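Something for you to look into today, if you have time. What I am after is a single protein written out in full by you. I want to see for myself how the chain folds. Could you add the entry underneath, on a fresh line?
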Amino acid sequence: MARQRYGQHFLIDSSVARREVAYARLTKDDVVLEIGPGKGIITSLVASKVKQVLAIEIDHHLVKKLQPMLQKNVTLILGDACCLDFQTLPRFTKIISNLPFQISSPITFKFLATPFSRAILIYQKDFAQRLVALPGTKDYSRLTVGVAYKACCRILEDVPRTCFSPQPYVDTSIVEIVPYKKPRFLVENEQFFFDLTKQLFTHRRKKIRHTINAIYRSYRKLPYLEKRVEQLTPEQIGMLSNKLYSQKKSGRSFE
């Protein structure tokens, strides 16, 4: 039984599981990371196609049940994926997971801080739509910009809530994430870029001028000041970040 404090919704539709695994284009040389193997429906399918599966499960009751059921090339790890240092794991090449909804954002950014070639992930449908949103739409967000900087994202298919047990309140989507070899655009300082993006989207209905005035007070001429952040592409936000960071670093234009 799923333990709701972990946000677990087990995939029970084997046809969806097979399609999810097929999207990953697995080979016998792949080492696959899976977060939340649940009852092992995806784990077993993946294990039959790859060199090794690293399955991280937070629920010790599930670990105990899964251990005798899984193939020998599955390494079952008891722990919290959000806290676990991925650098301590064998190097994985791909990620396939039906993610607990409550960790979607932090675990996605954690994935993107670690090398891999392709991830096939099941998210809440509204979260998936935010990942691929276009500027000027209601779903365009800090998440969109942060992920677009690091990777190419696309929704492969929507999955009805009836394919899970217990049934969630929302439908889900299978998403492909393919990291760029280098970030999509240049930023002078990543942390500054992420912090600025957060501030701008926190006040998304304000003109950029007002948000920057509130944070920095003094600055030289900057682009896009009369626009709102939701009107800017990720690259334009990166350009704004670079110009502002350059001024901050010089120390001549800030109080």
About this structure: The first helix runs from residue 14 to 23. Strands lie at 10-11, 31-35, 52-57, 74-78, 94-98, 118-124, 151-159, 164-165, 172-179. The chain has two domains: 4-179, 190-250. The chain has a mean pLDDT of 93.
